[in-house]
Amino acid sequence: MYHLKASLATTRRIIEQLEHDKRTIALMFLAPTLLMSLLAWVFSDNKNVFDMVAPAMLGVFPFIIMFLVTSITTLRERTGGTLERLMAMPVGKGDIVAGYGLAFALFGAVQSLITSAVAIYLLDLKVDGPMWFVVLVALLDTVLGVALGLMTSAFARTEFQAVQFMPALILPQILVCGLFLPLDKLPDVLETIAYCLPLTYAVDALNLVTKHSDITSEMWRDIAVVCGFILAALVLASLTLRRRTK
Amino acid sequence: MSAITAKQLVVTKSRKTILGPLDLHIESGTITGLIGPSGSGKTTLMRSIVGVQKFGGKLTVLDEVAGSRSLRKKIGYVTQSPAVYSDLTIEQNLRYFGTLVGASSKHISATIQTVQLETHAKQLVESLSGGQKARVSLAVALLGDPELLVLDEPTVGLDPLLRNDLWGLFVELAESGKTLLVSSHVMDEAERCENLLLIREGQVLWNDTRDKLLAHTKTSNVGDAFVASISQSVEESN
Fold first, then answer.
1. In a domain, A246, yes or no
2. Chain A residues within 8 Å of chain B (Cβ atoms)
3. Under DSSP, is residue B21 helix (H, G, I), strand (E, B) or coil?
4. Interface of B with A in 75-114 (CB under 8 A)
């Protein structure tokens, strides 16, 4: 009971913090939409290419943005001394991570709903499969970005370092996740590596939904794998919080 | 009854001993001034007591090993720089930390009054002055009515009148049975403490009442007494 209360209080606190930061909220909600519109414009003479690429981007854009937002916010908590204060209080490490996860997942949910709605209704994105599945995967990608951001912020000492984790950890995943080339066309070693990375499964699910009108077992497998990665990253994140320093 | 006892307490960081080995003893219901120059190990000692610093040797706080889970409800800790959320209002900060330590909303508003910030309650912390921020941080430590208050330089940069008020509050808290450990590098603050813990280069120079210190060193103020005890300890070690 206490842990639930502490997690929810943490979620509420983070939402209140962001409420005072209108610019971040605007960026969080508008940036993926603007990127999606740009993508539609780029492919305006090749609408079928847009329909192929856009679903994967619905997952990738919020993934990147939430990764950045989460790792910076968590790092600020570490460097600002509030984390040390929390660690001297009865609150559990898992409560804090859960509170963070939930708060940003809520923002991510709104973000992926806005982006998907714009893609479908304004940019006329067409997929063969059900649209709710696209939104579900986009949402999971957002939460994945949150979970990875929480985890990696432990390894950064400054905000400058935290931002560098984006090209170091996120961009390689985007290169090998099957977005540029189908996985079976990659060199063997890269293909094996790709199957160990979470974004591969998220993009695979989004690629499948463009081609299949039904939801296949493969798509559910992808979802399950992404959820597994999210849980693992959250558990690792709470393990990297140190109550006592050396 | 003793609130804090240390026996052969040692803290090492990257193979360098930064605190101890030292013994100390703090009686409950007292105010102890932890006085020493910057870099002397004050913060490290305080962090060990509140349970966020690993240490060697024995350190007992309120009859339990320092760092025990059950102690977290009984200790209020104010870090040197105000550890509160600058992008929240005073009220939002206190409500959040209050929920974590199980304080009622009545207790939360009373605490805001205690540190004389009720007129600013709905203001963002980032818009406050340094002294006001320090008081928000102090208010957070007072939430949940802890038995032991560990305050790392809580009155730095405060208006003298306000500093006076806060010391009045500390005395009141000690009279109600709470134990306070207050660090400072300003000697005139030391004059206000009946008990003193002088430390320098990770070693305890004095751990007894101020009156005894002045008598022992034949000085009339803590600043001179500090110098006298340093030269005394240097002589002893030679």
1. no
2. 2, 5-6, 9-10, 12-13, 16-17, 20-21, 80-82, 84-91, 243-246
3. strand
4. 75, 77, 79, 81-88, 92, 96-97, 99-102
End-to-end CA distance of chain B: 36
Domain extent at residue A18: 2-240
Whether A245 maps to a domain, the answer reads no
Structural domain of B89: 85-146
Quick check: A17 and B50 CB within 8 A?
no
Q: Show the low-confidence residues of chain A (pLDDT under 50).
A: none
Compute the C-alpha angle B103/B142/B1, nearest 5°.
Answer: 110
Assess if residue A79 is contained within a domain.
yes
Closest CA relative to residue B24, chosen from B205, B220, B150, B162: B205
How many Cβ atoms sit within 10 Å of the Cβ of residue B56?
14
The pLDDT confidence band at residue B146, using thresholds 50, 70 and 90, is: very high
pLDDT band at B112 (very low <50, low <70, confident <90, very high): very high
Residue A133 belongs to a domain: yes
pLDDT of residue B81: 84
Whether B93 contacts B84, CB under 8 Å: yes
Residue B128 maps to a domain: yes
Tens-digit pLDDT profile for residues A89-138: 989 888 998 898 899 888 888 888 888 889 888 988 888 888 888 888 88
In a domain, B55, yes or no: no
Q: Give the minimum alpha-carbon distance from B13 to chain A in angstroms, rounded to a whole number.
A: 6
For chain B, the domain total comes to 1
What is the per-residue pLDDT for A229? 93
The ipTM assigned to this model is: 0.85
Q: Tell me the pTM.
A: 0.86
Residues of A in contact with B79 (CB under 8 A): 81, 84-85
Neighbours of A89 (CB within 10 A): 20
Three-state secondary structure readout of A94-141: HHHHHHHHHHHHHHHHHHHHHHHHHHHHHCCCCCCCCHHHHHHHHHHH
What is the distance between the terminal CA atoms of chain A, rounded to a whole angstrom?
A: 32
Report how far residue A182's alpha carbon sits from residue A94's, in angstroms, rounded to the nearest whole number: 38
Query: d(Cα A150, Cα A155) in Å, to the nearest integer?
Result: 10
pLDDT of residue B65: 92
